Amino acid sequence: MRLSTLLNGFATASAGALLATTAMAQQSLEIVGHPVAQGMGFQPAVTEVAREVHDLDHMLLIIITVISVFVTGLLAWVMWRYSAKRNPNPASFTHNSPLEVAWTIVPIVILVFIGAFSLPVLYKQMEPPAADLVVKVVGNQWYWNYEYPDVKMADDETTTLAFDSFLIGSDLVLNADVEAQLVAAGYSKNEFLLATDTAMVVPVNKNVVVQLTGADVIHGWMMPALGVQSSAVPGRLNQVWFNAEKEGIYFGQCSALCGKNHAYMPITVKVVSQAAYDAWVLKAQGGDVVFSALPAPMDVAAAD
Question: Which of 86, 156, 266, 296 stands 20 to 30 A from 285 (CA)?
């Protein structure tokens, strides 16, 4: 009797550990794009557009730093050199043509130089290539709706997948229940306010076109690591695109003030292999839209 009790207890503990391990490991994807406490700089760029945006920002930072240092130094020198103490008799000239020409031409040259680099990046952002996948994203107070039109089924017919995406933790406070929900979804408590119950799933190295609109007020769909940000405006359809080069989990956020729960409207995008994406589509057609990187645990009958 005692041996049987011990064996049953061991089996129960083992099963619990297995389920916990499965919950923690169900997402073998690396969390790539996410904010870091006291972090400096950008999230890792995983698209060509994001890298070009980062390069443009770094170039502009150098330019504005040089201009700021020059103007501040010039102002300090003028204040010292031409103070009333050193110049009791103020100058009486009214203009300086060469200087005026210089401070007109130099800013024009700087702006043309900046435009030569920024306009191609802007054009690339706004002109998507041929789409491998189109996803319609609708902003709501305060959650996202994702719609995959024209998804191919096993019989080559097409269907539409649609689902909502909510913040994990509806009471908006991290407690034991919310932490358990995060663990069950494959996250940790560090992903609170970032992780959602469902995610936008896309294949790696594919051109994904995102069509954005709003159902009530203006929202903003922003994914820093993907180099994507645009407004979701009711009655309008905005379009952005990305081609993620690395599998992983990426977090974003609504970037437009949309009401009292604006801060609790995160975005989760999972970039997976083509095979994993195809498997998810088949599973989602049955109603289960939650992406799981590992197969679900099997029920094994206990031996008599």
Answer: 266
